[in-house]
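Researcher: Going back to the complex we discussed earlier. I've cleaned up the inputs and rechecked each line, so this should be the final set. Can you rerun the prediction on the complete assembly and write out the structure?
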Amino acid sequence: MCVQHLRCVFFAQHLCNSFETGGIPARFGPVKKPKSKKTSAPAVPSLMEGYDAGGFYCELTGAPDKPAQFAAPVKKLLDALDMRELRRRAKEAERELYNSGITFTVYTKKDVIDRVLPFDIIPRVISKRDWTKVDKGVRQRVATINHFLHDIYHDRKCISDGVVPASLVDENDNFRDVMKGVDLPYNTYAHICGVDLVRDGQGDFRVLEDNARTPSGVSYVIENRHLMQRAFPDLMRNIGIRHVSNYGQMLHEKLAEVGPPNVRDPQVVVLTPGVYNSAFFEHVFLSREMGVPLVEGRDLVVIDDKVFMQTVKGLEPVHVIYRRIDDDFLDPETFNPESALGVPGIMRSYIKGNVTLANAVGTGVADDKAVYAYMPRLIEYYLGEKPALANVDTHICGEPEGLEYTLDNLENLVLKPVGGSGGYGVIIGPRASKRALAIARKAIKADPDNFISQPMIDLSVSPTLMPRGVEPRHVDLRPFAVTGKDTWVLPGGLTRVALKKGSLVVNSSQGGGSKDTWVLE
Amino acid sequence: MTSLLSRHAESIYWMARYVERAENLARLLDVNETFSRNALGDQNWAAVLEIFDDGELFAKLRGAPTNEAVIHFYTLDAENPNSIQWQLNAVRENARALRPLISTEMWTQINTFHGRVSGKRRGDVTEAKLSNFCAMVKEGCQLHTGITEGTFVRDEAWYIYEAGRALERADQTTRLLDVKYHLLLPSEADVGSRLDVSQWNALLRSAAGYHAFRRTHPHGMTPALVAAFMLFDRYFARSVRACMVRLVQMLDEMEAAYGIAPTPETHRRLRALIQTLENESIDEVVGQGLHEFLDDIQDELIRVSDEFALSFFPEPVPD
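Model: Rerun complete. Updated structure for the full complex:
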């Protein structure tokens, strides 16, 4: 689930379908005067009229037995807009995204094509109460991830105490031997962490996965907000919304905290693979918001185990690197020798503590799907607290009960190989053929450690502007946590929406878009 | 404040140059529309290929030089490095790398301007519509420089940007002048003729210099006066001399503000060049050959540019 893989050609069809070209159902056409004088019905059908959440929990309206009172003022303001106006503004918003380059870029042999991540203009609203819980739950997870990473690269107590099996760590492809015994400032490994949440049929948030390597998408959170402020100032009137515009400032503050201990005012930089990376816009965004240089590997050089950047004034020292390059490409001397994106010798400097890398090397162990299954136990183990956010119920096939349950109920479960990513290779029981299930059973039996299973979740929906009107679409939520000495969570996060009717896949690579996320004061 | 990355210095230098180059190319094409007419009103665009020494490249890429094909070659042909489209592509790709530095408004304008030109098809830029197209390109480039002036932080990058722009503009002015001489040399009888004067007039106008020229020279217009004006005038914004003075001024200011200086060789060459522009008489230049003089200046500007690169964005030393 990675916004970096934005190579799909889903070009905001829902926004492009212009009013003029037709396709608008009659109820949104010109409206006759109401017949009865008694009713005070508006002249235009309200925006949400006829909206039906289809039995799912709705982010704006709640559930029939549990209406979302907190969102009522937003719904009322939305209702006051007419469809024609909404579409006009949506179209303008999209053009603005393109013109100001809030895009991901696809390079072909012949062309450079900028695409906009589809943006839906109906915001997703989160109550203060829900957010308090999410905020706490995210902090717990980040704290636990950092404890866990420090532990597995040092004393391995969680293994000797029997909380997790040794194989979970030792056989993990993302474990980096080079990190054994390395001490990091404040023991922080996952400086920037994205926790993917979904809301189930009861309206409870649950964690779907952790992203402890290089979670992306935060630029859309802030840009979506700016866009909404320009396009819908009237929609935000008198509604207290937690602001998000200080992300860059907080990020810089937290990254400066984890600079090498003896450096007073550390030089922070963002390291990008370059303009050809599809997430280049986000790298630009991060460097601009923090006010620090956006460097490429070729701008950096390591001399006497210290990192410098090449400027017009000569070499200048670099102390903290927010790197948007995977471990493998970071240092050709240590990892992939073919990498032209990295900086030779940077790992030597890192191990010596002369430079801080954010995120740390080797954090990939912690966001593994197999580790995910143990997270509730790890939270209790390290923090002595109950998790504020539950996992999606997870059956670990590496354990006898989990294996038995999975094999017995496979047709009702979602089966996930623990190594995979990006929504591929997952088997959805109720939608799989008998043959596919049989093959899966065989695979599980052959290597139980490699699988987990989860029940199907009724992902919540959010009203979304579609060519035929406002319709429910499934959404998730990725809050972003930034950690230096301690953790700060950006209020809200990235709401991704599956634009295809009925689809549960919110990935931008498979027809997903995004929404502005409002945490109410 | 953090110092400017060398890579960004290189990008900003070239971004400034390509914008200026695109603007001047639009000016030149616009002039040629007038120049390339012979006494009967026929046009010969193939002459433009000579000015840029592009005959070979054109033959290889596009074959026979019809007027239509040559116009396309210099406007929308993305395979020709000397086309407006190619230059705007380069502007945009440099701007993309510079997005951490340039203002959002700069990027947005470059992006939309580029989109506007890229959206044109062959039929949109015919001989009849060329003047409109050139006007649009000029305006887009000027809008860029205006937004840059109004929004760009005055750090080292600003001075490098301004220096790049001044250098390119000087270079382009020499080329604009050269258009004229290329066309007129073959039949020397035309020099000073009626047709000739109307063309010098058009040349001045294309460089937005007609009015400025008239203010300096209320009476008369000889080719020598026009050439002198475009080369040596102190006050005309596009004269080679004014551009060189601006370039030196920018370098001096950058040194004073940031302690960053180009190589001594850069200064030496610039001083010598300015001295020539201040002291040379146009009669002497014309006597010895204007074309050769322009060529020499162009060569000197290339050397200055090389020194510039050496000063601010040297090739990394191979280890």
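Model: Worth noting: The mean pLDDT of chain B is 88.
Researcher: Good, that matches what I expected from the previous run.
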